Amino acid sequence: VGRLDVLDGAATKSLEYFASLRPEELTGDELHRYALALTQLGDVRIKQGKLSDAVEMFRQSLRFAEAAVSQDPSRDEWQLALSNSHFYVGDALRRQGDARGALAHLRVYYEISARLAAKHPRDAKYETELSYGHSNLGSAYEALGDFARAGAEYRNAIGIDRQRVARDPRNESTRADLGNSLNKLGVLL
User: Fold this and answer.
1) Residue 155 above 60 pLDDT?
2) Between 20 and 30 A from 12 (CA), which of 37, 45, 66, 168?
3) Residue 47: burial class (beta carbons within 10 Å; 0-12, 13-18, 19+)
4) How far, in whole angstroms, is CA 183 from its chain's centroid?
5) What is the C-alpha to C-alpha distance for residues 175 and 186, in angstroms, rounded to an integer?
6) Angle, in degrees to the nearest 10, between helices 172-188 and 124-143
7) Please, are residues 92 and 41 in contact by the beta-carbon 8 Å criterion?
8) Other CB atoms closer than 10 Å to residue 181's CB: what's the count?
9) Is the Cβ–Cβ distance between 46 and 84 less than 8 Å?
């Protein structure tokens, strides 16, 4: 219905439930699903303007994603969920003004994305994550005042995005990613 307030009570009860769970007693599939659910609930909290609550949900998502990956590190979807959990924690910390904390999580997000992209060359999903990884590192460096590193990361994202556009020039999402990357560098310069 487009009303975030409807989810408010459910999100609170869900967080209480997830906090009561012991990851070592759950299967990897359950852990993975819970990590994804908590990320979605954290995103609802962001949209509601409840940043502190969102950070808690993203941290819980990270806890479950790490537990899933520890059960089977070869599962790429679980690795992707782990990288995305790091992204969401990092992004929320950035929103709170914690640029150093954000950078730590965004580095892990990038590293996992880079491994997945190397394992799956030319796979659009992983290339997109790799581009976003560079772009987010650029934003973190920019927030820390390290403009040289920020520019280098934005240029890396632009390079990846240009390759993606060259392979699929009609893909509006990919073209928008390139536009966003170029814009970030332009604003930085």
Assistant:
1) yes
2) 66
3) exposed
4) 20
5) 16
6) 20
7) no
8) 25
9) no
Q: 0.70 cut: is pTM over it?
A: yes
What sign results for the dihedral spanned by CA atoms 75, 86, 177, 152? negative
Quick check: 37 and 14 in contact, CB under 8 A? Answer: yes
Tokens 């502190």 sit on residue: 52
Asked if residues 177 and 128 have their Cβ atoms less than 8 Å apart, the reply is: yes
Q: Which residue has the tokens 């699929």?
A: 168
| CA dist., res. 57 & res. 40, Å (int) | 9
CA dihedral of residues 47, 48, 50, 56 (deg, nearest 10) = -60
Distance between CA 81 and CA 101 in Å, rounded?
19
CA separation for the pair 83, 57 (Å, rounded): 15
- Whether the Cβ atoms of residue 46 and residue 92 lie closer than 8 Å to each other: yes
pLDDT digits (tens, 9 = 90+) for 44-102: 899 989 999 999 999 999 999 999 999 999 999 999 999 999 999 999 999 999 999 99
The position carrying tokens 């869900």 is 14
